[in-house]
Amino acid sequence: MVAAPRAVRPRRGAREGADSRAARDAVFEGGAMPGQGYGSAQDHGHVFTGSPLDRAGNERRDGAWIEGQHAKPARRFLALRDLEALVEGDPAPTVAWLAPAELPDGAPEGEAVLLGLDGGEPRFAIDLTAVDEAALAGPLADGRRFAEVRGVAPDLPTDDTAILAQARSLVDWHARHPFCAACGGATTSRNGGLMRVCGDCDAEHFPRVDPVVIVLIIDGDRCLLVSGRGRPGSNYTCIAGFMEPGETVEEAVRREVREEAGVEVAAVRYHSSQPWPFPASLMLGCHAEAASASIAIDPEEIKDARWFDRADVARALDFAAGEIEGESGLDFGVPAPFTISHQLIRAWTSEAEGA
Ligand SMILES: [Zn+2]
């Protein structure tokens, strides 16, 4: 019997309270195998998921409609500068939406990307990177500040992080694609920023999304975690890697796990996904069963790979979530709750508790 998925929308990824913990546990009641009987990513409350905006996919193909959105008095702007986002409020920050009159001189409003509609009113992302610093006094009034998205995301409402993921990926893509990859001609934004068209050869260019598989390998009562070369200290996480052209999710999981840890994989089950806008990844979270146990790491890719007991991993998760005072008493750590890696591991340990 598989429990019906329930909507779980914790307001803060990293500050999970008792209510959201209870709701999260409810998702896993019924002892479902990891990866079965789960709802959408939104149900998991992952950071960067669950945007409340209507993306207006059909309307935005109409150029006159887009022009109309740019003229609406209630339009608001999410400002980015060097890919940092304007936020306000401390210690509980939110995205700072600027009114048209609050935009600085030189703000490229015509280039603003239409993120979507909030209650029918347009919400744009605008890149202020090229704006003179002296003109930023208005946007930076009242304690507003530009914040690095990865750093501030755990403290923002989840809705805001989803909007930021869309905004950061799109603003970055536009900044990198002023010219046509086919002929080198200048491109211009269309459809409110969901495509660019070459003025010379009419080629259409679309924002990229880069799929990444991320997987927790399970062998009975233990799981396989790796320590990446770029990771400080003794942090261990799920195996992850970019998918390659012509590959299924299952094939990518098997290849990555074999390449990084030398472990063979049996069944692969999809769990949930998470946009990761650095710059445009989509994390495809999976659980998979190990078909072999001995580890042979690729030292070019990772520092270490180990099997960890479930009880130790559960304690490491609680420590990463700030639920344990002082020391964890473990010789390893796991990623913070706002990562899908943490949530994949949590789903496995919670499934065991509920069984
Ligand atoms: Zn071209």
Architecture blueprint of SSEs:
Elements: H1 18-28, H2 41-44, H3 63-70, E1 76-81, E2 84-88, E3 94-95, E4 97-98, E5 113-118, E6 121-127, E7 145-147, H4 149-152, H5 158-176, E8 187-190, E9 195-198, E10 204-205, E11 210-219, E12 222-228, E13 239-242, H6 249-261, E14 265-276, E15 281-290, E16 302-309, H7 310-320, H8 340-354
The protein binds zinc ion.
How does this model look, in words?
The chain has 355 residues and is α+β, with helices and mostly antiparallel strands. It has 2 domains: 18-46 and 209-354, Nucleoside Triphosphate Pyrophosphohydrolase (Alpha-Beta Complex); 59-176, Nucleoside Triphosphate Pyrophosphohydrolase. It contains 8 helices and 16 strands. The strands form 3 sheets. Strands 1, 2, 3, 4, 5, 6 and 7 form a 7-stranded mixed sheet that branches. Strands 11, 12, 13, 14, 15 and 16 form a 6-stranded mixed sheet that branches. Strands 8-9-10 form a 3-stranded antiparallel sheet, with no helix packed on it. Residues 1-42 have low confidence and may be disordered. The structure holds zinc ion. Residues 180, 182-183, 185, 198, 200-201, 203 line the site of zinc ion.
